[in-house]
Amino acid sequence: MNNFSGQLPPELGNLNKLKILSLFSSGVSGEIPSTFENLRSLEQLWASDNELTGKIPYFIGSWSNLTNMVLQGNYFQGPIPSTFVNLTSLVQL
């Protein structure tokens, strides 16, 4: 819970050993950068109550270590990506 503003920096996608990304009510907005595809070690993504927009990225389906993902309270459009069937470790969505 912060008072950040603006888009997520694409450079965060370089943190390829990151396990937890918590952006709960942080004030970020815009689309999830394509560089986040590199976050394949991510186990938990908490990104609720922000102003994230666009489609939920298909590449999240390649984060095979992901166990928890919370994206509620944003402005995403379109379907849940079919690649989510690959998230076999996911226990919370």
How would you characterize this protein structure?
By secondary structure, the protein is an all-beta fold. The protein has one domain (10-86): Leucine-rich repeat, LRR (right-handed beta-alpha superhelix). It is 0% helix and 20% strand. It has no helices and six strands. The strands form two sheets. The protein has a three-stranded parallel sheet with strand order 1-3-5, with no helix packed on it. It starts with 19 loop residues before the first strand and ends in a 16-residue tail after the last strand.
Topology:
Blueprint: E1 20-22, E2 29-30, E3 44-46, E4 51-55, E5 68-70, E6 75-77
Parallel strand pairs: 1-3, 2-4, 3-5, 4-6
Keywords:
93 residues, globular, 3-stranded parallel sheet, mainly beta
Provide a quick synopsis of the model:
This protein is mostly beta strands. The chain has no helices and 6 strands. It starts with 19 loop residues before the first strand and ends in a 16-residue tail after the last strand.
CATH-level-4 superfamily name: Ribonuclease Inhibitor
Work out the strand percent.
Answer: 15-25%
Shape: globular
**Unreliable parts:** none
Question: What separation lies between the terminal Cα atoms?
Answer: 20 Å
In round numbers, the mean pLDDT is 96
Largest sheet: 3 strands, parallel
CATH topology: Leucine-rich repeat, LRR (right-handed beta-alpha superhelix)
Specify the CATH architecture: Alpha-Beta Horseshoe
Radius of gyration using CA atoms only:
12 Å
User: What helical percentage do the residues reach?
Assistant: under 10%
Based on secondary structure, the structural category is mainly beta
Arrangement of strands in the largest sheet:
1-3-5
Number of strands: 6
Number of domains as seen in the coordinates: 1
Number of helices: 0
CATH top level assignment: Alpha Beta
Spell out the helices and strands N to C: EEEEEE
